[in-house]
Specification:
Elements (H helix, E strand, L loop, with lengths): L3 E2 L4 E2 L42 H5 L14 H4 L17 E5 L5 E3 L2 H6 L10 E4 L6 H14 L4 E7 L2 E2 L2 E2 L2 H6 L5 E2 L14 H23 L7 H17 L9 H8 L13 H24 L18 E5 L9 H18 L5 E6 L3 H4 L3 H7 L1 H6 L2 E7 L10 H8 L2 E4 L5 H10 L6 H5 L6 E6 L5 E5 L3 H8 L1 H11 L1
Parallel strand pairs: 5-12, 5-13, 6-10, 6-11, 9-10, 11-12
Antiparallel strand pairs: 1-2, 3-4, 3-15, 7-8, 13-14, 14-15
Helix pairs in contact: 4-17, 6-7, 6-10, 7-8, 7-9, 8-9, 12-14, 17-18
The structure holds adenosine-5'-triphosphate (ATP) and magnesium ion.
Protein name: ATP/GTP-binding protein
InterPro entries: P-loop_NTPase
Organism: Amnibacterium flavum
Length: 487
């Protein structure tokens, strides 16, 4: 029956008749407030509408009995179980709980990289967050203790944080049956030889030249080497390696130094003018002075053959660099040399997958070593090496640098609390999180973080530890107590 004209608000007079009145449809009224044409009047929209007239409601012309709550699309996602399903599958290693769906999160970069089809295109990992958020607890459990129970898995740690006079991973290393490899600058620690044949095995003499370049830059506060200086360093290194080819002793950094002063003698440069030879000699000397200073300042660390205790130690190898000075080139130098040494060592030990953890990873990602580590990414993947970089904040890493590219290439990301809004924003932008995640990053509690892998959206996750893991990740004393109880 078409008896009314809803758009005008007028009603047919038929509905005013005594019996029909009871069945009259409601009149659409236009309230005065709706006169503003920009205002949306809800009762003129299609769909179930709220009615306020009690009399009409009693006659059945009524909207839903319960008024709806205002909501955003994001909030309404919780009503859709497909959206809040478990964020990961069950393969890999259990690492925690999705806060929204309360389901288990399992992930392991090595397993995800080996999956067919690939779940992640890079096995590298970034763990980021303020001091004391729980980064090392996650790293120790998820990237060291738990994977080590799997076959053919091992871990190598550059352990930077001091805990009672040694690195914080020392207890765990001993638990896995190996003493940490201790570095110090007082002459009592371990030595690393820049010209170690294991390093040459990583990427030939070219790799050794790149490493020496990085060390020379570190010795000069990060200042880049000029083309002349690079050439002088390359020539001196090649000459040193050739000099010692037939000798019993392995060449060391100290053997390169005299050759840096003699580059101009090389027959390769016979066609150069006297001025050019002068410039080359000058370039060689400036590199020599920088390396001289380094050897002098860090005697016992780089000035000799690699100590016999430097080797992979079963399942867990810890390079304890906690006693090296916070500032200066020692820490990044040991990380860079250790990185190259590891690549060379893995070449002769195939079949294992290795997690290499860089605590305070900005030492490698924010300085000259970043270009070296990045250029080795392909080699790392070929050797089943998953690099785990642990940082406090991203703003330490220069924009458009190889270090930033390396961080962005990591396909597994854990972002812990970043209380400074600019640091939280950096993470949101760098890792492609949703914009509303940034303010949440500022307020995360201990053990909570945003986890992202591959191209999946980030998930708010609680890292869950067993009681034993809690003890060993909280304090060293507790670790020893746990060991006594177990044993
Ligand atoms: N999963 C967790 N649940 C609850 N609390 C945790 C969790 N992980 C760590 N914590 C707490 O946070 C403290 C610091 O943890 P951790 O040393 O791992 O932090 P961090 O981020 O590595 O700190 P730093 O930046 O100083 O290295 C621990 O002693 C513990 O009290
Ligand atoms: Mg830590």
């Amino acid at each position: 029956m078409t008896t009314e004209a809803p758009d005008t608000g007028k009603q047919s007079r038929l509905w005013t008749l005594p019996v029909l009145r009871a069945f009259a449809p409601p009149v659409i009224e236009t309230p005065e407030e709706a006169c503003d044409s920009t205002e949306v009047v809800p009762w003129q929209l299609p769909g179930a509408q709220l009615r306020t007239n009690r009399g009409r409601a009693n006659r059945g012309f009524y909207a839903p009995r319960l008024p709806g709550a205002p909501t955003t699309t994001r909030q309404a996602e919780v009503l859709n179980s497909a959206v809040i399903g478990a964020p990961t599958g069950t393969s890999g290693i259990v690492i925690g709980r999705d806060v929204l769906s309360r389901t288990m999160i399992a992930h392991d970069p090595v397993t995800a990289y080996n999956a067919v089809p690939r779940i992640v295109s890079s096995p590298n990992v970034v763990v980021m967050g303020d001091v004391g958020g729980g980064k090392s607890s996650l790293t120790k459990t998820t990237y060291v203790i738990r994977p080590l129970v799997l076959a053919k898995r091992r871990a190598v740690v550059f352990d930077k944080k001091d805990q009672n006079g040694e690195g914080e991973y020392s207890g765990i290393a001993r638990r896995f049956g190996a003493e940490p490899i201790r570095f110090s600058t007082d002459g009592t620690g371990t030595r690393l030889n820049l010209l170690d044949p294991t390093i040459t095995r990583a990427d030939g003499v070219a790799g050794q030249v790149r490493l020496l370049n990085v060390i020379a830059r570190l010795a000069r506060d990060g200042k880049e080497l000029s083309e002349w200086e690079q050439e002088a360093l390359r020539a001196a290194l090649v000459r040193t390696v050739a000099d010692y080819e037939d000798k019993s002793r392995t060449p060391v950094l100290g053997d390169v130094l005299p050759n840096l002063s003699r580059v101009a003698d090389l027959t390769d440069y016979g066609s150069m003018s006297a001025k050019q030879l002068d410039d080359l000699e000058h370039a060689g000397l400036s590199v020599r002075f920088a390396l001289n200073g380094l050897l002098h300042d860090y005697a016992g660390l780089l000035d000799g053959e690699t100590s016999p205790d430097v080797d992979l130690r079963g399942k867990l190898t810890s390079f304890d660099i906690s006693q090296l000075p916070e500032d200066g080139p020692a820490v990044p130098a040991v990380m860079a040399i250790g990185h190259m040494w590891l690549l060379g060592r893995l070449r002769s030990d195939r079949g294992w997958a290795t997690n290499c953890i860089y605590e305070e990873g900005w030492h490698i990602a924010a300085g000259p070593s970043a270009a070296l580590a990045r250029s080795n990414q392909k080699l790392s993947r070929g050797l089943a090496l998953s690099n785990v970089f642990v940082f406090h904040k991203g703003s330490d890493i220069p924009p458009n640098s190889p270090g930033l590219a390396m961080v962005q290439e990591a396909q597994t990301v854990h972002v812990y609390r970043q209380s400074r809004p600019e640091d939280a924003l950096w993470c949101q932008r760098t890792f492609g999180f949703a914009p509303e995640t940034a303010p949440q990053i500022e307020k995360l509690g201990d053990g909570f973080h945003f986890f992202k892998y591959g191209s999946h959206p980030e998930t708010l996750m609680q890292h869950v530890r067993s009681p034993w893991e809690k003890q060993i990740t909280d304090t060293d004393e507790a670790f020893l107590a746990a060991g006594r109880r177990d044993g």
